[in-house]
Amino acid sequence: VSKMNARVVRAQAGATVANLGPGFDVLGLSLGMPVDVVEAEAVDNGGVAIVAIDGDEGGLSHDPLTNCVGVAARAVLDRFGPRGAGVRLRLQKGLPLGSGLGSSAASSVAAAVATASLWCPEVSRLELLDACREGERLATGVPHPDNVAASLLGGVVLCLPGEGEEVEVIRLPVPQDLWAICACPDLVVHTADARDVLPAEVPRQDAVRNLASVAGVVAALWRNDLELLGRCLEDRLATPYRRGLITGFDEVMAAARRAGAIGGGISGSGPSLFALAAGQSAATAAAQAMVQAFSEAGVEAWSVSRPVDTVGATVTRIG
Ligand code: HSE
């Protein structure tokens, strides 16, 4: 209890593009907006409580055992908190649920970062990753790290699997004029369902193609080569099986390219689609074209378009 250095903090964590095309469960990019905000108040009864949730249209549980903010906060306290450390959490959802923007990840990260900032500020961001993944495990059934790592750290991350569930995260360089666009249709796809449609085995030529593409993405980021990056975004592990869940997939991706995007694909498990572009004007044009193409396919959509976020989750002390 003596470690407590503030009573109330507010943390925010933003939207992410998991997979970044070919990097199924291993690459993630931080879009940074919209954000989920978690306000955490330190209490010394050892408990985790969720006292308010706004912006979820009543869709989320207030039970800390069945809401990823409660689970992530608990995981931080269990791993790093002093005896008796507890939190009361308020969650403000800015991310839509089931959108492919990493909604559960943003909530988990904001909760973990807020809780750590109250009780164990010496713990590094990277050390919080596994606690954030517990929120993801609850929400999706699998503690996949790509959304949480990008939301926590910002930038583009590579998640290297180790023994068992261990993951090592490597931050990759982000080219200065790299913009990311997400077009978010008025559809809901739950990650667990989008994982269920994936086959247990894929043709070897598809696996080989993805190996080359992921290596190409990493090389392109190091070389600051957006043309190469655009050529390496195609995915053959998940997209062929998920595209059918997203009305307008082909038309929206074609529209993004025609408007000047370098490439794109499904954001996480969808239904949002992402594109990358060199600079603001191509990004703005691509965003408009993607929303328009969704609309022509009969689905309303909105978009976010911004330079790749390189900051990650942030904390403000409010008391
Ligand atoms: N890598 C995960 C998937 C991300 O594609 O299922 C889910 O947001």
- Report the structural category: alpha+beta
The biggest beta sheet reads: 7 strands, mixed
Low-pLDDT residue intervals, each spanning 5 or more residues: none
- Which H/E pattern describes the elements? EEEHEHHHEEEHHHHHEEHEE
Description:
The structure is a single chain. The protein has ten helices and eleven strands. Helix content is 35%, strand content 26%. The protein is globular. Strand 8 (263-266) and strand 9 (273-278) form a beta hairpin. The strands form two sheets. Strands 1, 2, 3, 4, 5, 6 and 11 form a seven-stranded mixed sheet that branches. Helix 1 runs antiparallel to helix 3 and helix 2 packs across helix 4 (146-153). It has helices at residues 68-80, 103-119, 129-140, 146-153, 191-196, 204-223, 226-231, 239-242, 249-258, 280-296; strands at residues 8-18, 27-43, 48-54, 86-92, 156-161, 167-172, 178-185, 263-266, 273-278, 301-307, 314-317. 55% of the residues are buried. It is an alpha+beta fold and 319 residues long. It binds L-homoserine.
Task: Tell me the layout of helices and strands.
Elements: E1 8-18, E2 27-43, E3 48-54, H1 68-80, E4 86-92, H2 103-119, H3 129-140, H4 146-153, E5 156-161, E6 167-172, E7 178-185, H5 191-196, H6 204-223, H7 226-231, H8 239-242, H9 249-258, E8 263-266, E9 273-278, H10 280-296, E10 301-307, E11 314-317
Parallel strand pairs: 3-4
Antiparallel strand pairs: 1-2, 1-11, 2-4, 2-5, 5-6, 7-9, 7-10, 8-9
The chain binds L-homoserine.
Keywords:
single chain; 319 residues; alpha+beta; seven-stranded mixed β-sheet; four-stranded antiparallel β-sheet; 10 helices; 11 strands; globular; binds L-homoserine
